[in-house]
Amino acid sequence: MGVTRRTFLIGATGLSVAVLAACTDEPPQPSPEPTPAPPAGPPRPAGVARSDWLGDSFSRGSTSYLPVGESTRLREELASPWRDRLFFAGEATSTDAPSTVHGALASGERAAAEILAVAAPGERVVIVGAGIAGAAAARLLVDDGPEGLEVIVLEARGRTGGRIHTIDGDAWPGPVELGAQWVRSIADHDLLERLVRVGVEVAIAETARGFDESGEPIALTRAEPASATLETVLLPVLQAARQAAEAVEPDVALATALALLRPWDGTPGPEGAPSEAQSIALALSGLVEPRLGAAMGELSTREGLDELPLGADNLVTGGWARLVDSLLDDVDVQLSSPVTGIAIGDDDVSVRLGVGDSFSADRVVLTAPLGVLQERGIDLELPAVKDSAIARLGVGAVETIWLRYDEPFWDEEAALWVLADPEAAVPLWVNLQAVTGEPVLVGVVAGSRAIGFGALDEGDAVTAALAGLARLAVERAPSGD
Fold it and tell me: What is the pLDDT of residues 190-209, one digit of tens each?
């Protein structure tokens, strides 16, 4: 069940009630000893930026995942070309790295290679979508295509990038990333090298700290808590859940698998390590939900967990959009051109735009997000096997809220903060003060918690976010003396 707007507000306000005593003629009573005032909550930020990928009609979600009982065969069926006319790309079509930028980029290059194997000189190729998959496909086709190959990119938004959304402006000390943020699994691809080549800065979020429901730090390792990675500490509980599930069923939802672990009796872990319940909460908030965007009641334990992106937390701080722009250099990109229909003929493909215009093409690369395909945002007749793959894959949600301060109110030095509280509206925070030196906090809301978060007005969203920060940051804030 997702966190509702009412839950956000109740959690944020505490619902205290002040009772005023009526005036009487009784003699005054001695005043009790003054009660220390509770610590003030975090200050309101000087600037706010937020995403709403679920509410965006051109995305309808952030990621894709495998629900219970499904396998990567769905992704293979979605990725396969249709009649050598319609080709598919995007993170949902990646079997190696779904829900990642490098997976989407590789899918675009794979689709372009499929076209190059059949295209003749002088053909026209239309690419639907100027995200990283469409940009990668366009670059390869322009650079390596046969003589006279015409490549046109149609983008529904008024900007390029798709679910990469970089905001640059004087109000912020650096680029704001409302979509993709991380690069992981770096041994399996060259994305970091590509970013460096186009001048995009990347930093490693080296330290992580967990906090219990009251905001007290949780030691992530026995020896040196500040140096622990979330993966080394929290993956074992996910592996244990998978083993417990495999003993009773071929596949169950991750929420069910976690429930199969022995009930937690409140006993602390050895030498201050996380308890089992805390490990579960931290694993969901810090690993599974923000990396897959999946609802725990639907995510496959057997196949879905295998798609969890692993590796060092490489945070892109220099602007993802530069990579997209470099790929689309000298490419014909037509913005604000939403595609509403694609019809495949014997000898060509007709691409219909929302304004009523249409393009005739020899080949089309479709990079529309899974959520758009599920909602039939594009009129398209596909074979039953593809329709089934689209319907059965899961659409995930990852939203971010950026809070800019003139100066930090916190003194916590870890780059990642994870709150072991299943009810927290925003359980994961990126402390850019520790990474870039700028007083900016980035909250990550994912999975079922993200449902409705993007639809909150800015004031309610900030209030919900600050409720968690009040517990894990304010009591350790500098005194200012």
Answer: 999 999 999 999 999 888 88
Cβ atoms of 342 and 358 closer than 8 Å: no
- Beta carbons of 272 and 322 less than 8 angstroms apart: no
pTM attached to this predicted model? 0.88
Q: Evaluate whether 209 touches 220 at the Cβ level (below 8 Å).
A: yes
Residue 153 has pLDDT above 70, yes or no: yes
Query: What DSSP element (H or E) covers 419?
Result: strand 416-419
Instruction: Write the burial class of residue 19 (CB in 10 Å: 0-12 exposed, 13-18 middle, 19+ buried).
Output: exposed
Scan for tokens 């938004």, then name that residue: 157
In the sheet that holds 47-50, the strands lie side by side as: 47-50, 398-404, 440-446, 428-431, 416-419, 208-211, 217-218
In 317-388, beta strands by DSSP E: 332-334, 339-344, 349-353, 358-361, 363-366, 379-380
Q: What single-letter DSSP state applies at residue 203? A: E
- The domain defined by 47-55+193-317+397-476 carries CATH number 3.20.20: no
What's the rounded Cα separation, in Å, for the pair 92 and 415? Answer: 29
Angle, helix 276-283 to helix 230-246, in steps of 10 degrees: 100
Is 37 buried (19+), middle (13-18) or exposed (0-12) by CB count in 10 A? exposed
Amino acid letter for position 382: L
Ranges in the chain annotated CATH 3.50.50.60: 63-166+319-395
What would the pLDDT profile of 45-92 be if each residue is shown by its tens digit?
999 999 999 999 999 999 999 999 999 999 999 999 999 999 999 999
Alpha helices in 121-201 (DSSP H): 132-144, 191-197
Residue 315 has pLDDT above 50, yes or no: yes
- Architecture of domain 63-166+319-395 in CATH? 3-Layer(bba) Sandwich (3.50)
Name the more confident of 31 and 271: 271
pLDDT value of position 178: 97
